[in-house]
Amino acid sequence: MNLTEKTVRKNTVFEGKIIRVRCDDALLPDGRPCRREVVEHPGGASVLYVREGKVLLVRQFRYPYGEETLEIPAGKLDPGEDPAHTAARELAEETGWEPASVEHLYTIYPTPGYSAEKIYIYRARGVREGAAHPDEGEFLTAAFYPVSDVLAMIERGEIRDAKTIIAVQSLRLSGEA
Prior knowledge:
The protein is an alpha+beta fold. About 20% of the residues lie in helices and about 45% in strands. A hairpin with a 2-residue loop joins strand 6 and strand 7 (about 55-60). The longest helix is centred in the middle third of the chain and has 13 residues, at about 85-95.
């Protein structure tokens, strides 16, 4: 059975600094018309850095949730930017730690029901310390947490960020946790 839905017309209803929202006319696999709401986002990259059994996390206020979150460093891809470069750039900007390389772990679709966003998850390798230089208007703190503590925070529901949960759980899969 072919499950493909066909786009008839893309209709942009909002264009902001970070996202674009569309309400498209489409056809279901059986040919009936439908509307599809889509949030276009350039995507993001995140990076897991583990040193001496501790995970580097950033704490920042996330306006949509109205609360502070603990997350692995991450940021939005610039137009045409390689996600690996974004991951390395964000680690350095947000924390001061500069990786010699990053290894791709996963590419995730955080909200496939309405968003085209992809998040690339990397692991930092060969990291050296530098000076943090967050973007203007970006306020955060960075700290290392023992892997066991981070896993416990995930289990207690204190860390709810999907990319962070996936990245830290990968340590279990690799036998590092």
